[in-house]
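Protocol step 4 of 6: structure prediction from sequence.
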Amino acid sequence: MRNFLSRLIKDQRGMSFFIVCVGITALFGMTALVTDFGRISLSRQRLVNAADSAAMAGARDLCFISDPLTREIEARQRAIDVAKANGAPEEGITVNIENHKVSVDAEQDVNLIMSRLFGVNQRVVRVHALAQVSSVTSYKGLAPMTIYDQPLTFGQMVTLKFGESNSSTPGNFGALALGGVGSDTYRENLINGYQTIIRKGEKLWTEPGNMTGPTDGIGERLSRCTDGCTYDNFVPGCPRVIVIPMHKDMPQGRSEIKITNFAAFFIDRESTLSATNEIKGYFVKMAVEGDTDLFEPVTSLYGARLIE
């Protein structure tokens, strides 16, 4: 036996065969690792995207469905539908709602290919997402108008730019000087929005005067909508929807106001029969991009924020 082992060790052909076998085994192992790891990673990322989208969709519905008896049911179903639409298997979706938060857990079996050579056929991928809706505290693209901070209801018509000066704020008609004073700046911001981020707590200057001519610029903005939008059915980014700041001051002439909130309105000058120097809109709620505060009550603008 000792002589046999000695010959086997000295036999280069036997050693070569042994090295080749080890190399082939290692090669198969690496191939299995790379191939199946890629499948697992891809499936996990798709499942993460599905869970994140589902949690945010459910959180939005949870915040703005008014009926307390159906709010959680509809929000949960919305989350499930969105998860399924993004590729998550229905049997692996679990949605929980608690304390105004929506959590989505999803799992999926991933069939392996090369790992079957080593007796491993499947791997279970599990992901978790938690979302909460919160109030937006900053916005880019404000229209150069402002109103007094007040409770509003969905679909309520509000005068945003007055045709006559209010007795409590003499000289002011609701216009703002964003990024500079003058009618040209006001008109440009009315058409395209002020392209600088404005935050709650900042102070802005009012733009006194009726601004009758520049106010006509709102017509150019409204003409850009080609989807037949209405206040209760509009596409994201519709130019008929404007966002303005709110305040609790009593400005007189050119003076400063402090932003206390933001509000969105759907402008429809024909149905409101607004005069050329007036702008009216329907109060709406919508999701936008911007900084959010989980501790602020949601009013008009909100952002769905993933917290896990």
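Step 5 (inspection) to follow. The radius of gyration is 30 Å.
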